[in-house]
Amino acid sequence: MRNIDKTEQGDTQAADDGGTDRRQRQRRERDLRRHTETDSLTGLRNQKYVIRILSGNRHRRDRRRRSFVSMIGIDDLVNIRKECGHCAADEIIRAIGRHLDDRSESAGFAASWDEDAFLVVRSCADELEAWLWTESIRREVSAIVAGAVMASAGMVCVETQQLTLRTPEWADHALSLARAAGGGRVCTWPMVQVESMAGELQMRGDLSLETRREMLLKRMGNLLGDAQRSHVHRHCIEVSSMGVRLAEALGLSEHWIETIRMAGLFHDIGKCVIPESILSKPTTLSGMEWEVLRRHGEFGAHLAAMLGASDDVVDVIERHQELSASSGLARIADISPVVQAARVLSLADAMCAMRVSRPYRPAMGRDEMLQALRGVCVGHMDVVTTRAVERVSAEAWSPAA
Hints:
alpha+beta; Alpha-Beta Plaits; Hypothetical protein af1432
């Protein structure tokens, strides 16, 4: 019996020793993996970690949330290294890495992606939250060293269970688009998709500009939500028609009437990449939300140029987005033809918007619309413009219209 007890004790000791060895081996493996998955300069995770996480199955079981991947790029790092030296550039990268780590730890993680870019993966409620967070981070990174660096970002928002190894590639493509557009901005994966569609149509020299536009909208298909579809389809057609009526009433030349017609068809096409939650929001937009919304003008002008619009059409689209509805009436006699056309388009846009219900207000009657515009009518040319508005609106607001 005593010998049996000794044997059992020996087996137990051996098992304990084996368990200890296994735990030590697992600990060494974890330490080695942590070392190989950590960037030596910033202390953040690196690409190997991202690949392992996105290759796993844990996030694919999450059916409740959405997640986004943001690629934050330092646009002028090469010049910083040349002008300030490698040590100064490395310290900037470390500071950015620390900031991203602090801002990401509560709902995701940050990783060093390559020499001049960082990757952030976080959960979110929707695309708008992802865009606003990415824009906020982009600004914070740009301000870390007293404005010594300029940051751009690419962002893609998906269902969490749809995160794959392709998602960082999409974010990287969006970052490339942001840099190609001049840097210092956020671009999204939908922008990359729509630009790619426009690029395919760009080569179709046998098609008219209007046909290319119609084909682009058709190709967008399921990418568009209800509010996006309303803006890029019906509203653009209405503004184009209203702009032509105003231009004719003001006696503009055939060239500028046609320019306004085409600019009207394209003026809101950039809203195809603006989040639905902004376009359908029933309350006042925040400052950051307004800035996201204003991106549609720049992107819409870019699409128009890609599809072959004239320089005047592109200029009118860009300038129209800079003008408020009220400035569309002011001092119209003292401005260049491009700005005059842009202000006519801005005025047509305002009239069409007031004519229909929006999430934040009901449709306006003609008298209410005229009252909203009449406050800025000063000077002889403004009187002419006002008469044109009254004449055109009488037709537009008539029961038969």
